[in-house]
Each structure stands twice: as C-alpha cells, then as structure tokens.
Amino acid sequence: MKKIILTIICLININILIYSQEKIIKIGVKLGLNYTLPKLNNNSLAVLENKIGFSGGMFMNYNFSNKLAVQPELLFSTQNFNYTIENFDIVNGSTNKKGINKESYLNIPILLKYFLVNKFDIEFGPQIGFIINSNTNLIFYNKAFKFDKPNDKFNFSGNIGIGYDISTKMNLGIRYNFGILELNGFKNSVLQFNIDCKI
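Above: the chain's sequence. Below: its structure in token form.
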C-alpha cells in the first residue's frame, strides 16, 4: 500500500515539473460529503440505513483542449451504513441483529471531463479503491461484537457526475459512484457532493 501511494505521488510530481511552465496541468484539493447507497444481493434479509461520511484529497487536471480534460484523483473516503437483520428465536421470539458497517478507502478515480456551455462539465471514468479499514459492529441480544474483515483488499467501481465552475479556482460537483464488485454480500455505491479548489 505504501509503495503504491509513493509511486502515485512521484508520478504526480514528475508531471507537475514537466508541465508547470506551460500551465497545462493544474493541481488542487478536493473535499466532499458521501451518502452511502449500498446495494444488497437478492438473498440478503438485511434492512439498510444509509449514513453520511466524508472524503478528501488531491487531484490533477490535464487539459487536452478547452472542451476535454482528464482528472486523476487521490482521495481518502469513509463509506459507512447501518443494517438490521430480523431473526426468529424459538425461545425468545423475534429478535433483531443491528450492526454498523464501517469502511475507509483510499480511492483513485480517473475521470474524463467534457466541458459544456455556461461553466458546466460532465465527468465519467473508473475507480480503484484500496480498503484501509473494514469492520462491523454488531449488537445482538443487547451485546456488542466487533468483527474485522481483512479478506477484502480493494474495490472497483465507476463514476458519473456533473460539475459547475463557480470561479476560475473553484468547482462544485455531484458524483455517483456505483460499485461493480460485490463485497460481503453487497455492492458499495456512494452519492458524493464535492468542492474542488485549484492551487
């Protein structure tokens, strides 16, 4: 994981040195809120409650023309949700398992941006997510249990979104990140509200 992060940072720095004089590449920071929208498989009996998380990191914007650009990003993201599973116990009757699924990612989206009229742009592209932390806090019969999930190492998803330039330095965006791989019985999708600040 550390080697991957260092390699990405080195590549970004090399590109900045090459193109900084020509102003082709612009870098900046990104902050946002996540609204987790996990999708369960058809066999699951759980009822989900979506939760709000956050994301933050840096991006690099390379303009091919005044209409087209590519934007790789390096983001830390929290993607959590609550769930309830109803069970039938012969002795105690119906009981519920309540849990909180907590996941932290290092996400690397690579987006193609197309600039429309009136400062609007659309974006789409793939995303690789490296899972930094993943665990479940479960409450069952009024007792709390914590389970780590070390088997999941990464996730793969897609992005589609729209942005608006409120100034030459700032962009507001809404992005839908849809999970492609199934992890522990669900696909982790996220609705994101972002602000980009160019340096």
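The two ends are 27 Å apart (CA to CA).
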